[in-house]
Design goal:
5-stranded antiparallel sheet
Length: 155
C-alpha cells in the first residue's frame, strides 16, 4: 500500500501544463491547415468561390500564427492578388509561406480598406471585406480580426 508520503515525493515537474498543450495543439492545427491548403488544389480553372475559401483559410492560419508566435501578420492586396508577411526577430517584415498569391487572370480582388491590414491575433485588427470575382459575380471574405467567413456576392 502506498502511503501519503509516497504521493508527496512525486515529481511536480512531470507532465505537461495546459499552456504547453494548447500551444502544441495550435502548432499542429497550423501545420495541418497548411498541408490541407497545399494538397490537391489545382490552380487551373479556380473560381471565385475556391479563391475566397482559400483566402479565408489563409487568414485563419495568419491569426493562428500571430497567436502562437506573438508577432503580427500583415495582409496586403491589390486587384491581382494578395500576400502575407510577418516580422522576424529584428522586427523587419518578411514574406510568409509561399509568398504572394496571384489570382487567376479572370478574377479580381477588391477591398473596402487601404490595401493592407494587420492581423495581431487578439482581434485588434481592422474589420475588412474583400471581394473576389469576375463579370459573372463573386464571393466576399469578411474578416473581423479573428475569423474569416465567406459569402456569395460581392460588396
Amino acid at each position: 500500500m502506498v502511503g501519503p508520503a509516497a504521493s508527496r515525493d512525486r515529481d511536480h515537474h512531470a507532465g505537461f501544463t495546459l499552456v504547453e498543450m494548447l500551444v502544441t495543439l495550435a502548432i499542429v492545427g497550423v501545420l495541418t491547415t497548411m498541408v490541407v491548403l497545399g494538397m490537391g488544389l489545382s490552380r487551373q480553372g479556380a473560381d471565385a468561390r475556391t479563391e475566397a475559401n482559400l483566402l479565408a483559410a489563409r487568414l485563419g492560419v495568419a491569426v493562428d500564427d500571430a497567436l502562437v508566435s506573438r508577432r503580427p501578420v500583415s495582409l496586403s492586396w491589390d486587384a491581382e492578388g494578395y500576400g502575407l508577411m510577418t516580422t522576424d526577430n529584428a522586427g523587419r517584415w518578411t514574406v510568409t509561406g509561399e509568398g504572394r498569391h496571384r489570382l487567376p487572370r479572370t478574377l479580381t480582388l477588391s477591398g473596402d480598406g487601404p490595401g493592407m491590414v494587420i492581423v495581431d491575433g487578439d482581434g485588434g485588427g481592422n474589420a475588412i471585406a474583400l471581394s473576389i470575382g469576375d463579370e459573372r459575380g463573386g464571393w466576399t471574405v469578411d474578416f473581423d480580426g479573428l475569423t474569416a467567413t465567406t459569402r456569395a456576392g460581392s460588396t
